[in-house]
Design a protein that fits this description.
Layout (H helix, E strand, L loop, with lengths): L7 H7 L7 H8 L6 E4 L6 H9 L5 E5 L3 H11 L6 E4 L6 H7 L5 E7 L4 H5 L29 H7 L2 H12 L4 H12 L7 H10 L11 H13 L1 H15 E11 L2 H15 L19 E3 L9 H6 L7 E7 L5
Parallel strand pairs: 1-2, 1-4, 2-3, 4-5
Antiparallel strand pairs: 5-7, 6-7
């Protein structure tokens, strides 16, 4: 079923993704028996299984994921919950449509656990990593959904200097973005940039990120992954969709792993919590703005030290939550 060609049982048994901030997510969702919850990034089903347990015996979960391997693993993990789990290979940008098509709107909770799973990072064939031991055999793919769309290699092959610079600057916050963009365009004229090793070689020869604590390829790969999967636009649409399908009093929980995602979530929730958008100098409010959210996490919730020790990839996680307010009367 997965694009890798692996047998279903192999994919499911090898799919590893420890649910991050699990207890905190469940607490913020404030679940009760019978609740209907959307897990927009179901992954291996870790959060989903806990949600289904918490909402037993009659609660339902709608689980979305763009990754066919993830859904395969989730089906195995959630099989004991039978007809209470509803899975679909979809992006969470379309969660409102999916929920309405399944006739489950309004729902009681929406969870978005953003980023890349450990399984995706650890499988070199997916192209999300650049470790020296596998870089030569790692294709520049980076697609969450391997059934279609452009790969990172195809994006790099056709993008202009200006496009590459914009991605590296906006999505990677990379110093030297223009220099690297020019170096890539020059290098691809000599040979295709088709593997992680090819790209890392260009980064190093361009002198990007010298003296930094982290390898500069980390930011480059992040930027390309976001561009390939249109992740930030998907997040914006997913937050809008959550507001459309949550019942008044329902909860939205988002776990972000880098500042770009977290900034979008923070700003959108703050904007949605405002009751007035008139200019500050205007003495009387005339905008009739109705707030959508009440933010319930004044500061982002971070993993405890024990979780960070057990799962180092949880260190950058930031959880924000909000409560859906009623529409205007």
């Amino acid at each position: 079923m997965g694009a890798s060609g692996e047998a279903p049982h192999t994919v499911s048994s090898n799919f590893k993704h420890e649910p991050v901030l699990l207890v905190e997510s469940l607490d913020q969702l404030a679940l009760s028996p019978g609740a209907v919850v959307v897990d927009g990034t179901v992954g291996g089903g870790g959060h989903a299984a806990a949600i289904l347990e918490r909402t037993a015996p009659t609660g339902h979960l709608i689980g979305l994921d763009r990754d066919a391997d993830a859904l395969e693993a989730a089906r195995t993990r959630l099989a004991p919950f039978a007809e209470r789990a509803h899975l679909a290979q979809e992006s969470f940008r379309d969660l409102a449509r999916v929920v309405r098509d399944l006739d489950f709107a309004p729902v009681d909770g929406v969870l978005l656990d953003l980023g890349v799973s450990s399984h995706q990072l650890d499988r070199a064939a997916r192209g999300f990593r650049f470790g020296a031991e596998t870089a030569a055999d790692t294709p520049l793919d980076m697609r969450m959904d391997t059934s279609g769309g452009e790969t990172a290699a195809e994006l790099v092959a056709r993008a202009t200097v200006e496009q590459l610079e914009e991605w590296f600057r906006a999505y990677g916050e990379l110093p030297g973005a223009r220099r690297l963009a020019r170096a890539i365009v020059a290098a691809r004229d000599e040979r295709p940039i088709a593997t992680a090793a090819n790209l890392v070689d260009v980064i190093e020869r361009a002198g990007i990120g010298r003296g930094r604590r982290h390898h500069p390829a980390t930011l480059v790969f992040q930027a390309l992954r976001i561009a390939v999967n249109d992740e930030l636009e998907a997040l914006e649409r997913g937050l809008e969709g959550a507001a459309q399908i949550l019942r008044p009093g329902g909860r939205l929980v988002v776990i972000a792993y880098h500042s770009l995602e977290d900034r979008i979530v923070k700003h959108r929730l703050r904007e949605g919590a405002r009751s007035c958008t008139c200019p500050p100098a205007q003495p009387v409010c005339t905008c009739d703005t109705v707030p959508v959210w009440r933010v319930v996490t004044r500061r982002p919730v971070r993993p405890a030290t024990d979780e960070e020790r057990a799962n180092p990839r949880a260190r950058s996680a930031r959880l924000r939550a909000a409560l859906r307010l009623p529409e205007a009367a």
